[in-house]
Amino acid sequence: MLSAIDHWLFHEIAGQTVVAYLITFVVPLFGPALFMKFVGIAGLRNVLSYEANDTVVHRLDPRIKLLYPVFIGVCSVLLSWQWTYLLFLLTLVPWVLLRPSLVRVRILAVLVVTPALLSIWSQGLYATTPRDKLLFAFPVTMAWVGTAGLSHAGLVYGAHQAARILVTSSAALIVVFTTQPSDVVWATSRLLAPQRLGLAISVGVRFLPTVFERLNAVMRAAEVRGYDFSRPERWWKLRQIWDYGKRMVRALPLITVPVLVGSLRGCYQMALVADSRAFNVNKRRSTLRVIQRTAADRVALALGGGIAAGVAILVAIGQGRF
User: I need a labelling partner for 141 at 20 to 30 A (CA). Which of 159, 272, 274, 313 fits?
Assistant: First the structure.
């Protein structure tokens, strides 16, 4: 029985087509499924917002935290993929100092790891050449998808790119999680960057949590009025999944229109607030808050200098990408 199934799946064109469809369209759906299972809209709303706390990372100079993702991103581009994974381990040190709860760690892990895994899988399908060894060759019925199959070289290349996704995601989320939006504007002005840049970064940081809050409120209001957003209890119950998909499609106008209108109103109100506070009238903004350089800042700068020196040495001895 098993040999017959194996022969049909891997040696008959109909079975190969079924496997190819699963590889191309079903496996990538595990990423969104994991996201909805372990994160959801409420979890994403909470994790992508500033959380006030009294940790050494929160007390760091906002300029250092704002430059941190840029510095780490440049290092990840210069290093080879093996050293980039080591750099990713170094980016976990600030998270250890934050000591987040297990729930937040789970959400952050899904947010960081899921895009990396999807990148590996997509590169395994499309970063292929005719000379690559294929783990599974697609039949002629799948020629329209534009790939010859799942490639070992593509998966390895995807692992290279996933290392940089992990590094940049981990570094950027530290800034979102530990920096007040007003401190972002202050840091950009003190770094001699345009004030509009600081406002754009601050608005971008606050935009997603605000949108998810509105989306969650609209969905709860629709549920109060009798609309059903409940998900299927078991993934193998195809009828429930099909019914859930139809309900979500029908609910799109009910959800998107109020969220879009609310976002436009919020943007208009933010523009009025910026004008009322004379934003961008003077080249250098005044502030009531005075941020003094601390010992933690000096340690962070020294560690950054050490990492920069290490990256320069690795590039000089041929361990970089170029």
Answer: 159
